[in-house]
Structures are given as structure tokens and as C-alpha cells.
Amino acid sequence: MRGMRLVRFILTRLLQAIPVVLGVVVLNFLLLQLAPGDAATVLAGEAGGAPPEYVEQLRARFGLDKPVLVQLGLYLKNIVLLDLGFSFRNNAPVLELILGRLWPTLLLMGATLVISVGGGVILGVVAALGVRTWRDHLISIAAVIAYATPLFWIGLMLILVFSIRLNWFPTSGMEDVVAFHEGWARVVDIAHHLVLPTITLSLFYLALYTRLMRATVLEQRGAEYATTARAKGLTERAITLRHVLRNALLPVVTMAGVQVGALLGGSVVVETVFAWPGLGQLAYQSLFARDFNLLLGIFFLSACLVVIVNIIVDVIYVLLDPRIRVGGQS
Amino acid sequence: MSTSFWTRFLGNPRVLLGSIWLVLVVIGALAAPLIAPLDPFAISGRPFVRPLDGFVFGTDSLGRSVWSGLVHGARTTLLIAVIATLAAVAFGGLLGALSGFYAGRVDNLLMRLTEFFQTIPSFIFAILLVAVLSPSTTSVVVAIATVSWPPIARIVRAEVMSLRSREFIQAAITLGERDGVILFRQILPNALSPLIVTGSLLVATAILTESALSFLGLGAPNFMSWGFMIGAGRSFLRDSWWLVAIPGIAILLTVLSINLVGEGLNDALNPRLRTL
After folding, report:
1. Rounded average pLDDT over A70-74
2. What pLDDT is attached to residue B271?
3. How much is the pTM?
4. Contact B133/A36 with Cβ under 8 angstroms?
5. Hey, are the CB atoms on A157 and B244 less than 8 Å from each other?
6. How far, in whole angstroms, is CA A298 from its chain's centroid?
7. Residues of B in contact with A288 (CB under 8 A)
8. In this predicted model, which residue has the larger pLDDT, B233 or A330?
9. Percent of chain A scored above 70 by pLDDT?
């Protein structure tokens, strides 16, 4: 029964996500209208100039001479068919380019989520357990500083210290391409390259989750169930670790879900700094090639990614907290 | 504001430290041509002069003074961050007020819009906006404001909703006051303190966004800014690390100070809701 309801819950959430995805498509279309020139002039430009009649012909072929609403319809139809357009600079369909760059970004994001949520929960609990001791102050000060540090700058500083001066980690890239590692050697190589970008992208969120976790643990320790446990004679430590921790996890999970979009934005900067061959770097490259089709495609797919991750977070939430009934029968 | 507000506010050592740095930065930004007479874009000496070697913070790859860049950059960065935040507060505030005041269908629609803007990857959207509108001061301000209004809308909505059911608002409605008058004369003054706190914290986020944009080369052209300096110094990290380190520390300290002051404001304005 529970499984069925979970499936229905996921389907409902998917349905609710449709307006968001549609909104992104319309937004993309509007931005495309705002951008200087249209596909026809771009094509003509790529060909090194073309007579105006030819440009008009191209417009007619792409339906660019039709009213704006009809064009929007065409655009929608293309998106539904997963046709995100063609990148003339890279001479490849946008979708193909993006899918090729997806997994490095997912790897970076996954590693960052694990480090920032895991580390944030641990540091937050440590700080809350020793509230107003030196441990708490140290963690809180570090969190406040990390919270104010620009991502790209900390990345460059890490490169300066750990790559250039100490030579512990590679400065850029995802793997040593000329080494032709295979199997485990390749995994180790990628992991080695992953360390600095992950730390860079994690720091801000680590600080955020640490502060959130600390605040929630302190708040939950005043809750009635904690008082009951105290009356039962449990130690503060046991109460925090056995009872409070589980409840305090929920806001962190929610926050992690909310932050996925920001994480993708951060990865643009981090991938640029570390030449990590993911979506962010592709976005940076398309920016300078004035490749709007590609840029809009990346925006569209990252918005979809956020929606999907949000649904996954909701499911995790339901699994973590049995009080939340799925299917609306409360 | 009573004296207890100021003692609570400035008596907090974090707030005091933050305020001192912010005052210095603001003075630097206002008096930029006086304290840094060298044009930040002009070639003023040999390239790659180390700090304290004739130039306080040295020179960059083209021989431009880093000190001038820093002071003039403070101007650009602060101005863009403050204007973008004001725009976000005005827009988000209006939406939130309408949403909270009229409730029902208006609220539903506006909140969907807010959620939408919170879901989309905001930094990528900001990049897109600047790229499409082509980089300029205006497009950077528009991009930052477009991605930062949702939290303001939510907070104002919550405030307005709770105030709307209070007796003095109900009285004003019964007296036949116009909606606009009620919103601006009765509700706004009472909703001001969370608005000020969130707004001040938003300036910090705006500075981070602005520097990330200009680091990527999407800043306002012909305006020196901290992010631009880091982006330009990046290629020379190995030998001239100060070109990256110094502007980065400036960003870090400024954002940190704003956060400290913002949290201090929150503690002083809502003594009962202290941030832990």
C-alpha cells in the first residue's frame, strides 16, 4: 500500500513540476527574443555574410517571419520533442553537447552534497554539544567566514597553496588524459582531480548547513520529547545523538533541496576556475562564443535537473519522516 | 529609535568591527579620486611590481595600480550591489504586499511566480540575462535584482498577512481608508524591521553575485571592480599571487562585515528572536 502511495506521490509531484518547466521554456523564448539578432542572422553571419533575400528565405524556413505566438508554439513543440536547437559554433545538436557534459557536473555536485551535508551535520552537532565552549566558537567563526568567501577566490587560493606551492593536487581538469589510466587507476585519478573543486564548492554550503544544524539541534533540545528523555535520566549526549539528531536532520535536507539551483550556479564558477569539463564550463564557453542556443539549453536542462532533485528530496523527506503521510490521507 | 537600540546594536563587538570596516570601505568608495588619484585603468608603472615596492599593493600585468583598482572597485561593487538590492526590495516588497494583503487568487498567482523564481538556477539565469542584454551597469543591476527579490516577497507577504488581521488594520479598513494608504501608512512602518534586516543581508549576496559575474567577464565594462581584478589576475597566480589575493580579501571582509552588521541589526531590532 505504502509503495503504491509513494508512486502516486511522485507522479503528483511530476505533474506539479510541469508549470515550472513550461515557465522556463517561455522565459527562454522571451530571452531569445530579447537577444540581438535571430537564428537567421546568426546563420548568415556564420556563413560569412549573405544577401538580405537569403536571410529572408532562412527566416521563412525557420518560421521566424510568423507572429510571436506562433513562434512560441513552434519553440514549445521543439522542446517537447527534446530538440533544443543546434549549436553552430560546436557544429552539434545542443542536447548532445549538454548530455556529454552532464556527468562531470553531476559527479561534482554529488561529491559536494555529500561533503557539505555530511560535514555540516557533524560540525553542527559538535558545535551544539559544546555550546559556548571553544569548539563551538571555533566552528561558528569558521562558518561565518566561509559563508562570506567568494567561491572563485577560495578556489584560486586553494590552487595557489595546494597545487602550485605544495604540488599535492592537480591544478585543473578532470583526469590526466595523456596517462591513459584504466579501471581503478582512472577512478583514483578522477578522485584526485575532484578534491579541490569539491572543497571549493562545498565550503559555502558546509558553513550554511553547520549553522542550520547547530541552530536546529539547540532548538530541538528544548522540545518536550527531549525533556521527557532528560526526565528518564538520559545524558545530554545520548539525547542529542539518539533523539534530537533525527529531527534536526529534516531542515538540513529541506535546505539541501532548496540549494540545488544555487549549487549549479556555483559549479559554473568552480568549473571555470578548475577547467572541470562539465555543464558550467560549457556555459562559460558558450557565453564567449555568443552561442545563445547552447546557453538557453543549459539553462533549460539545469532547471529540469533542479526540479528532479527537488522531487528526490521530497521522497527522501517522506521516507525520513513517517509523520508526513503521502497521498493526503492525514 | 530609543537609546537602548543603539546600545544593543553597537555594544555588540561583531557589529562594531563590521561597522568600522564598512565605514572605511564607504569612505574609500566616496573619496576614491582623492585617496587613489591614479586612474585604475591607466598604466602607472612597471608591470608586476610587488606590494610595498613603490605601490602599496603593487601593480598588475599591465602596470596598473592595484590600490587604485581596489578603491575605485569598491565604488562600482558597492553601487551596483546597493542599487540592485533597492530594486529587489522595491519589487519583492510590492509583490509580497499585494500577495499578503489581497490573499486568495492574487496571492496564489504571485506566490507561484515567487516559487518559480526560487526554483530556477538563479546564477545561471543571471548570467543569461547579462549575456542577452549585453554587459553594462544596467544589465548587471537588472540581473542581480531579478534573482534576489523572492526572499523579500516571502518575508513581506508573511508580515503583511499577520498584520492584516490585527485590530488597528481592521479598524483602518472599517474606516474606509484606501488600500494603498493602509499598505504604506499602516502596514509598511510595522513591517520595516524584517525588511531592513533581509535587505542588508541581500547586499552581501549581491556583492558576491556581482563579483562572480565580473570575474567571469560579465561585469560592467570600463568600470573597475573587485571580481574583474581577480579574473584579470588569475593567469598570473603562480608568480603574482597578490593580484588575486588582495581583491579577494576585500570582498571577503566586506561581505563578512555586512553579514555581521545585518545579524546585529536583527538581534537589536527583534531582541526576542535572537539569531543563535
Report:
1. 79
2. 61
3. 0.87
4. no
5. yes
6. 12
7. 217
8. B233
9. 90
| pLDDT tens-digit map of B130-167 | 988 888 899 999 999 999 999 899 989 988 888 888 88
CB A108 within 8 A of CB A62: no
Grid coordinates standing for B159?
508580515
The conformational region for residue B208 under phi > 0 = left, psi -120 to 50 = alpha, else beta, is alpha
Residue of A nearest to B274 (CA): A215
Chain B CA closest to residue A140: B276
Residues A151-209 pLDDT 10s: 999 999 998 889 888 888 888 877 777 777 777 878 888 888 888 999 999 999 999 99
Which residues from A are below 8 Å from B216, CB to CB?
268-269, 272, 284, 287
Looking at domain A102-288, which of 3.30.930.10, 1.10.10.10, 1.10.3720.10, 3.30.1330.10 is its CATH number? 1.10.3720.10
How far is residue A72 CA from its own chain's centroid?
28
**The residue type at A37:** G
Residue A30 touches partner B, C-beta closer than 8 Å: no
Q: In chain B, which residues have their Cβ closer than 8 Å to the Cβ of A24?
A: 120
Query: In the CATH scheme, what is the homologous superfamily, with its name and number, of domain B3-38+61-273?
Result: MetI-like (1.10.3720.10)
Which of B134, B241, B248 is facing A150, going by the closest CB pair?
Answer: B248
Q: Can you tell me the mean pLDDT for A84-106?
A: 82
Please state the rounded mean pLDDT for residues B45-63.
70
Looking at chain A, the domain(s) classified CATH 1.10.3720.10 span 102-288
Average pLDDT, chain B: 84
Find the CB nearest B124 among A20, A265, A290: A265
Q: How far apart are CA B25 and CA B40, in angstroms?
A: 17
A152 touches chain B (CB under 8 A): yes
SS3 content of chain A, % helix, strand, coil (to 5): 80, 0, 20
Domain boundaries, chain B: 3-38+61-273
